[in-house]
Amino acid sequence: MRTFNLVLKRLMDFFGSLVGVIIISPILLIIAILVKLNSRGPVLFKQERLGKDGKVFKILKFRTMVVNAENIGDGIRVKSELDNRITKIGKVLRKTSLDELPQLINVIKGEMSLVGPRPPVVYHPYNGYANYPEGSKKRFSMRPGITGLAQVAVRNSVTWDERIVVDNEYINKFNVWLDIKIILFTIIQVVNKESVYGNLNIEVSEDELNV
Q1: What are the pLDDT digits (tens) for 11-41?
Q2: Helices 176-192 and 2-38, interaxial angle, to 10°?
Q3: Is the CA virtual torsion 174, 142, 59, 122 positive or negative?
Q4: Residue ranges per domain, the chain?
Q5: What is the C-alpha separation between 125 and 141, in angstroms, rounded?
């Protein structure tokens, strides 16, 4: 049954993302133009992340901060939406999670899934896949997701190690119906504009804010 669910999940990921990109292509174009006009730099932010089985890939997001933000001010720490490294259009994109849309391309390519544990940067919370505790590596047994159980359950209100526990719980309980429920809860959170900053000042990279 798990194998059937995994096959169905991949089919839903591929065709759902492909149709989604086609439908929202005008929105993607408008956002790209606004990002380009709002500040100097590339439209997309690309960063190396750890994917399935610890394989490194480049995640795609609309750029929401000034170029070289990680080496300015508070570095990889983003305390709130008042951070002056965040561009004007970037604040809107982060609040609405529209900056995540380019990750549909990652899903089509098979690097990500619509639902799964969020892919961490290669150096945080552990420096490289090999340095993760054995129990924590379980979260990498499935493709990382645009959204996931940790995102709808705890957001950024807990530490990374606590989120890994939730990620492993998702791996254990995975089925397509659970994915559908997580997607629905994610939509509700976006509509309600819940804070993505949580209650803790968690160290994050430029595009880790919406993890």
Answers
A1: 999 999 999 999 999 999 999 999 999 988 9
A2: 30
A3: positive
A4: 2-192
A5: 18
